[in-house]
């Protein structure tokens, strides 16, 4: 695999709307292969014996990446305000899926097609009415390829015909390991070790390990890798995704209530596995992404980019998270962008599980101080935030309560307000 540091990196856009589907497929494949290569022989063996990913963090992160990609596809479609725009994003991801298929990256293909087939998307009748018929035809072909019918028979035939680089659907092959381990006895007659079973299991695992030695022929742009990495850190629950879906296209009150249906392609064998980045990792991902943004958009090298460029970059993420004050008219500073994405990433990565405050915006007519930093709320009419539960007052919504989470020190600097 051509890494991000070999030779002069090719120039690519950091804006989702400007990216070619093949470029997006390349960079998703780069992230997928990098994650796949971290899984060791022992990791596969431990999973086979325990039948769960507990205490196998490398494998858990790999599955979380796949699930995160599937969610990201759904959220990017739902982030567009009109049915026509949602259909365009849907079509773009279908073209990404075609590129992934051509590259034999079946694991990411499963994630992307699974996202497009998810009932939070398939229920959007206005959106699907704008999807061209030829796109729908290709999607049906993809779902047939990845269908679980006859134990993924169509996928297995396609996979066996591939030579060279390929990334398997990890869940299918992990299930195969468990099936073989449970179907064959550990011992044969005279209490002898079943050598045949050991050989079969070894061959299964070794085949996966050998695939790690065949990198894809692509040249990843590290700036785009940084942006995608941060995008995939975000996590929404199923209920939150359905709320977004219903907000885009409300239920038809005349139609009978429907329950979410199982999509034809689903990534549910490890659906409980979600991205779990810690605050330090989030901070690292944000800093790398911000560095990449300023390298590409701060043409004057003065520490600012235009607000228009910032909005285009923010649109490459599923949703806008807040509005920021600008130090300079029409411009956004490095510090403001860093705070924006730190705030957004912590919220959407569900790092605030110990966050007990329930804030609402409040106006104060008398001298008032912030309970977090003791700072004075300025102005004749003071704007701040009050917790409905314990009545704490803050100049801004901090990321976590310091008395509960001493380890989480990466809060947004005091004085920056969330509107």
UniProtKB/TrEMBL annotation:
InterPro entries: C1-like_sf, EF-hand-dom_pair, EF_Hand_1_Ca_BS, EF_hand_dom, PKC_DAG/PE, Ras-like_GEF, Ras_GEF_dom_sf, RASGEF_cat_dom. Residues 285-320 form the EF-hand domain. It comes from Oryzias sinensis. Belongs to the RASGRP family. GO terms for cellular component: cytosol; endomembrane system; plasma membrane. SUPFAM superfamilies: Cysteine-rich domain (SSF57889), EF-hand (SSF47473), Ras GEF (SSF48366). This is RAS guanyl releasing protein 1. Residues 20-251 form the Ras-GEF domain. The keyword Cytoplasm applies. GO terms for biological process: Ras protein signal transduction.
